[in-house]
Amino acid sequence: MNFFNLARHWRIGLRLLARQPLQSAIELLGLAAGFAVCFLLLGYARYAFTYDRDVPAREQVYLVKHRLNFIPQPQWMEYTPFALREVALRSGLPLDVSAWWPRQATARLQGLPRAVEVTLVDPAFERIAGLRALEGDLQQALTRPDGLAVTRQAARQLFGDGSTTALGRTVEINGQTVQVRAVLADRPANSTIQFGILAGVNTALWPEPERRQALANWMGIGGRIYVRTGPGVQPGALQQVLQDVIDRAPWGDIATPEMKAALGQRKMVDIALGPLSEAYFDRSVAGTMGTGPRGDRRLVLAMAGAGVVILLLAALNYVNLAAMRVVRRQREIAMRRVLGAGTDQLLTQFMIESVLLSTAAAAAGVLLAWLLAPVASDLLAWPLAGLFTPASVALALAGGAVLGAAAGVYPGWLARGVDLGRVLSHRSGETAGGAWLRRVLAALQFGAAMAMGAVALAILWQTRFAATAPAGFDAAPLLVVELPRGDDTVPVAALRDALARLPGVAGVADSRSVPGRDDGTGTLGSVAVQRLDGSSASLTVYAVGADFFDVYGLTPVAGRLFDPRLERTGGPGAGKPAEHAPKHAAGQPDGQNGGQGTEQTIGQGIGQSIEQDRPVVLNGAAVRALGWQSAAQATGQRIVGTSYRIVGVAPDIRWESLRAPARAILYELARDSNLLTVRLAGRSDQAAVAAAAAAIAATVARYVPTAPPVVRRAASYPAEAYAADERVARMLGWATAMVLALAAFGVYAMAAASVQRRGREIVLRKLHGAGRAAIAALVAREFVLLTGAAALLGLPLAVLGVERYLAPFVAHAPWGRWAPLAALALALLVVALAAARHTLAAMRTSPVQALRD
């Protein structure tokens, strides 16, 4: 085929598409929607799979991980004892090793104190992370005690948006004057190595003895250790060196007999090296201290697959509608064949029409994706920077052309098979094979929509149910003040007393956790103790202030709860945490400390001698776990082998999400913790709470000037546990709506073809006395059967998906398992609406007029 013939086909294709603007618009919009969704979801998958791609040779970079097997809930953690850094440096292997130690500091900006985070690293970090200074000398910044390296964004925060350059400028941090000696590019959003201010481990910002002790500590976890292996070094060799050394560390001295018995054949501590290239998808450390956001590889692949499936469904819908176009153009096709057009020419013509429409749809899809970008960013919690590039747009247009060429093959093949004799004798129509193919395509679309819609409804109903499930206390009058963690300068006691004096405040309690709040450590405080029969039991530990139960409005099941009058002025040891057993699992905040940037001590207090009684409160599950038959029986008893004296039993309240089973809980006393719960007196409507929150924030700002006050409603925390679920439900909901719309277009076209194909049958039935109801049943039967076939395809997948989602929950929404039937009802409604116009036309057909036509 020469160029002139090809150009003629293009012109003919454009004219034919313009001749039927409505159908062309429907086909174009359906494909454009598919392209937009696919473009966004594949863009998200690319974003997730290119995490840490800015690090050169990232396959050679590893993070040292450890797992404490002697605690009741072992979990891998990236925050690791810094003593392993020195072990790696002295291993004799060709390595670059660096600590990564984020710490909270106080900077004076424009005369006012402000909290900032400074990350301490070794000079080798420059080579490990592949950092390049935009200005200045990064090595000097990391080796000089008064040196700093800042990103551009951090420079704007330190010196203001109007500053032309930060290089050479000084700033006061922790009372020390330091100088910016290097300016770095801002960190990419898809990086697990996030920082704003870098300093060397020999910085003057913290006293040298403190830094040395932390870097040589075997029991502290303050940050990560990064390693870049040299040529020929296998990560297993370094892992074995680290494991051998840590096996000889004095872990056995801090373990209780119950812990050692629970270990079995396991080591006290396991060491592993996690590849940086897999860090984002490393679910073994997700949610633990300092890890930041981590992805789920299966979810990302599922969303990418969903994007491709939606695009394929849109393409199938186009093929369906294009096949109908062939049926309507049979006379034109027959005449062209009579005039000498060959099979290759007809096939080329239909493929060119398809390529034209599909490429235009791809362009419209990219535009639609750009318009939907804010919605997608919110649903996926994903910054969209770098998605709309010339390369990505060109790739989308090329994909549109390829998809158009493929989708045009079937209509071209149908055109090749047109029967000239039947067409020219006015007896043409759609072949039985073509009709069945379109029914199959429509059934696939509706089946996919039912499956996705059912799962979306189940997730949405379950998350709404879980977020509002009774927590065991009234959260309406409660506000929570989050104070900076790890800041010993915060006068917690004075602030608590000042808040208690505010008008409308009924009480204030401090605690290290609040119900429903994720503290970001990924571990729960726990202690292993003996049951009455001598076996071991694990209790989850929550450290709360003496006013906690009063502020939360809880009354004892048996005995008494913590009483501020008794605990603050009572006998020896009142108000102090127990010291005989591990107060918290590794990574759990302890008192003022905790969280990212603060060194934690592993096994603090383990193995110390039993002192005087320490008052504790249990919940009902803990009473049963320890072997008592009733709460009254446990009250006043001492837990075997400990200094814990049970003063009472508290009612059960939900501290975690509905995915977690009810735990055996031990409440111990703590003072001056970083979370303050304020109980309001009087009204708890939105206006009253907002006014109280403003007054509380103003008070907090006077006592904590280094950071903006954080005041939240206590009822807002449980919903955070299901935020990701709700995003998935909304995404599935949008996808379901789009697939249903595509399927509705197909049903609309099928209804038109069905009424046209059965025109004579409908007339004959009416002449023999059939009423409108009978005609409606005749037309509807095909679509009821189609929906039934779709249900057979989609509902088993829907039931499987709903059951797998609901399985981890300990309580379910009462209507959650009805989601598949709701999706079926929605599909039937869409089918009825899509076929309604042509069904009504068939019911109103006049036999006389039809025979005349």
Question: What does the secondary structure layout of this molecule look like, with pairings?
Answer:
Layout lengths: L2 H17 L1 H29 L11 E8 L7 E2 L5 H7 L5 E15 L2 E10 L3 H5 L3 E4 L1 H6 L3 E5 H8 L10 E4 L2 E9 L12 E4 L7 H8 L4 E2 L2 E6 L5 H13 L9 H7 L5 E7 L21 H32 L1 H9 L4 H38 L9 H18 L1 H8 L3 H5 L7 H36 L10 E5 L9 H9 L4 E7 L14 E5 L5 E9 L3 H4 L6 E2 L4 H4 L32 E2 L12 E6 H6 L5 H4 L9 E7 L14 E5 L5 E6 L5 H18 L6 E4 L3 H4 L2 H35 L1 H9 L4 H35 L12 H26 L2 H6 L1
Parallel strand pairs: 4-9, 6-8, 16-21, 19-20
Antiparallel strand pairs: 1-2, 1-11, 1-12, 3-4, 3-7, 3-11, 5-8, 6-9, 7-8, 10-18, 13-22, 13-23, 14-22, 15-16, 17-20, 19-21
Helix pairs in contact: 1-12, 2-10, 2-12, 2-24, 10-14, 10-16, 10-24, 12-13, 12-14, 12-24, 16-24, 16-26, 16-27, 17-22, 24-27, 26-27
* Class from secondary-structure proportions: alpha+beta
Radius of gyration: 34 Å
Number of strands: 23
Beta strand %: 15-25%
The pLDDT mean sits at: 82
Largest sheet: 6 strands, mixed, barrel
Q: In DSSP terms, counting alpha (H) and pi (I) runs of 4 or more, how many helices? A: 28
- What gap, in angstroms, lies between the N and C termini? 42 Å
User: What share of the residues lie within helices?
Assistant: 40-55%
Uncertain runs: 423-428, 569-610
- What spatial order of strands do you see in the largest sheet? 3-4-9-6-8-7
